[in-house]
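Below sits the subject:

***
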Amino acid sequence: MALPAGAQKYYNDAVSITDVSLWQQGESLYIDMQIDMRRVKVDNDRTLTLTPLLVGADHNVMLSPIIINGHRRQKAYVRSMALNEETELGVPYDKEEILSYTQVIPYQPWMVDASLNLEENLCGCGGHQEELTQELIQKGVSTEIGRLSAIHPMLSYIRPEADKVEIRSRQYEAHLEFPVNKSVILPDYMNNKSELQQIQKMLSEIVNDKEVSVKGIYIEGLASPEGALKLNEQLSVSRAEALKNYLAAHGQIPAGLCHVSFGGENWDGLVKALEASSLKEKATLLDIITHTADITLRKEKLKKVDGGAPYRAMLKELYPALRKVNCRVDYTSDITIAAQSDARATNLNAAADALSRKDLTAARGYLDKSNQQTAQYINNNGVYYLLNGEPERAILEFNKAIRKGNEAARHNLEEMEKVMKMRKK
């Protein structure tokens, strides 16, 4: 009776085990092996129990045991099973066959470094001495993350573009206060003096920088969402125009570069303000905003909540801060941009080299100093997450890079999908 090549022998060489597999997939751990016990001999009045154990540093799981009875013990065992008496339930074993042993258990993180052992217990029945031994079958589990980390991903490199000019922006949100239904800026009204100083400071720093070329100044007015939309639009544009005129009068804006627009009623700001508020009805108010598409109907519903008290509180406490003006300056700086372009490309390429060595600490540092808008960065960031054992984040990054036309990311995602579709051996 020849044993298969590569068989491991246990229980005084009477048991051989082949085709051992510890395979994690999703939330399950699949345990498979072929167990040949045809050489096992057990005395008539004794029982041999073979119990596979999954053993970790601080945990262990006992799997279904295999019970081999001597002739007389087997008869007693069968009777107890027929009478439904309490008895240890084992995997049935026909000594004429090789047992295909399969167990599926919930996977837990500690199992990644676990060992599969075989406990051999020959009972102390019939006046014999109990014999208890434990032997190693296999150490380590094939995990999905481990299989993914074995992929050899394609990395992206970028050629520096020193002559490329990039438009950059700085933005400030001005919460200017206006008297009701007025659009005249009063510098000494409420907190206007401080807000105007901040805008002037930002503009002065950019306009007076000799290495900067201003391309446009955009002033956008936003309205609190009460009253008619048309009136809100007119009022917001008028207030944005008022800020433009104020800054022009104080020498802050180059002629012809300023653009004024209406940013809409500030519903996003109201949602954030409500979420941060202590209004007890805020859940109801947020539900109305989220699920009522018709703006006019939405406003009417808000007014009627709890007799109108919450709405009056919003008008007083939340709405004033929603009436704001965004001021954005677009500019270029050829010397700085060229230098930064070189540096960011160099960092991106250094990150790719570090990833090829699986030096994740160095790669993260270089990636954080790269241009994060490029497809090459996004692909390499996906590779970082893949090697760091974060497959979900890697997939998100590869998909983003693919949408930007990055073929390396497409290859990497296809390789991941192959591994994730693999079934247990």
Remarks:
- The chain is about 40% helix and 25% strand.
- The first strand starts at residue 8 and ends at 10.
